[in-house]
Amino acid sequence: MTAADTAERRERVLAALATAGAAGVSGEALASDLGCSRAAVHRHVEALRRDGVEVVSAHDGYRLGDGEDPVVPGLVAPRLSPPLAGPVVWASETGSTNDDLTMRARDGAPEGTIVGADRQSAGRGRRGRAWVADRGDALLVSVLLRPPVAPVDVALLPLVVAVGAADALGDDARIVWPNDILVGGRKVAGILCEMSADQERVAWAVAGIGVNVRAAPPLDDARWTPGALADAGPAPPRADLLVALMEGIGRRYAAWIADGPTGIVAAFAARDALVGHGVTVSLGDEDVVGTCAGTDELGRLRIVTAAGERLLGAGEVVRVTR
Ligand code: BTN
Q1: Are 164 and 249 in contact, with CB atoms under 8 Å apart?
Q2: Quick one: average pLDDT of 75-86?
Q3: Which of 121, 130, 129 is nearest to 94 (CA)?
Q4: Interatomic CA distance for residues 275 and 288, integer angstroms
Q5: Minimum-distance ligand 1 atom for the alpha carbon of 116
Q6: Which pLDDT band, with edges at 50, 70 and 90, does 160 fall under?
Q7: In this structure, are residues 213 and 138 in contact, taking their beta carbons and an 8 Å threshold?
Q8: Which strands form 316-321's sheet, in the order they lie side by side?
Q9: Within its chain, how far is the Cα of 252 from the centroid?
């Protein structure tokens, strides 16, 4: 049996356990489903345990531990629809899903390819910050886009992804330019968009999304108090959240490609946490202080300062006042 066959069977065991829920599944049923011996089933279960999955032995079978919230590609992929319809690759642990997907993008992976992990050892945030989450507490996922737009227009993409992700996170989700997502004033999700373009075309864009689902780890970002979806009630299963995110982002992305920026800018404005507030934006060598007047069609932040309006394509909002 090849390594790919073994991985495929292990995923089928996890899928059966995830589907069975608290009732569990017998070793015999698993063996017959996989066309292998019960000893082989046991070896797959042991491998899942080594990956950190809690599998409880119960009577003549197995069930997942109560805290398990698995994302199983074979169960998620059929629930996705274009333009972000997979393939879905899921790792128990990796360095950074953005790095993994970037490699696949360079190798020609199709738009809609999704790479996720239960844990990242080198998760990256914006501006060189780390993005940390304990195993299974967060949804850590990257999706590949190949937007057929001019390189100058792709500056709006981080806002397109933010609006789509906010749609998936509920009516209360607000966006801090360019793409931090707050719920109840706490940062529950961050987005890291990385792209490759030449003068004529965008070769690929990787949108990496981290959502704190069950718990909010310390945030390597002094501006916001971290939050988690579980702060406001029972958190959704991560697989459901992944499907909702891909649907939300896919819908906004398709509308942007078909209709241009106007609808995205309006949708962003409806969720904009900064508009009308006094802000300080650090450009590194300069602080711009003024009142936020929203964003323009290239995704730039509009700041009305004492000296007139500034349009900022980069920078970090470091202070928000009334
Ligand atoms: C931020 O708010 O600074 C952006 C955080 C983005 C984190 C996600 S988790 C999945 C993907 N892989 C990474 O290494 N980073 C992004």
Answers
A1: yes
A2: 96
A3: 121
A4: 15
A5: 10
A6: very high
A7: yes
A8: 308-312, 301-305, 287-295, 278-282, 316-321
A9: 15
pLDDT (tens digit per residue) in 186-196: 999 999 999 99
Over residues 134-148, the pLDDT tens digits come to: 888 999 999 999 999
Structure tokens at 229: 């979806």
- From the number of C-beta atoms within 10 Å of its C-beta (0-12, 13-18, 19+), residue 292 rates as buried
If we measure between CA atoms, which residue out of 113, 165, 118 comes closest to residue 138?
118
pLDDT at 38 over 80: yes
Distance 17 CA to ligand 1 centre (A): 29
Does residue 48 contact residue 10 with C-beta atoms inside 8 Å?
Answer: yes
Q: How high is the pLDDT of residue 219?
A: 65
Amino acid letter, 218: P
Interval between CA 129 and ligand 1 midpoint (Å) = 9
Q: What is the pLDDT of residues 85-98, one digit of tens each?
A: 989 999 999 999 99
Q: Residues lining ligand 1, judged by CB closer than 6 Å?
A: 96-98, 120, 123-126, 129, 131, 140-142, 180, 190-192, 208-210
- Of 106, 132, 109, which Cα lies nearest the Cα of 121? 132
d(CA 255, CA 263): 8
Amino acid in the structure at residue 99: D
pTM of the model as a whole: 0.93
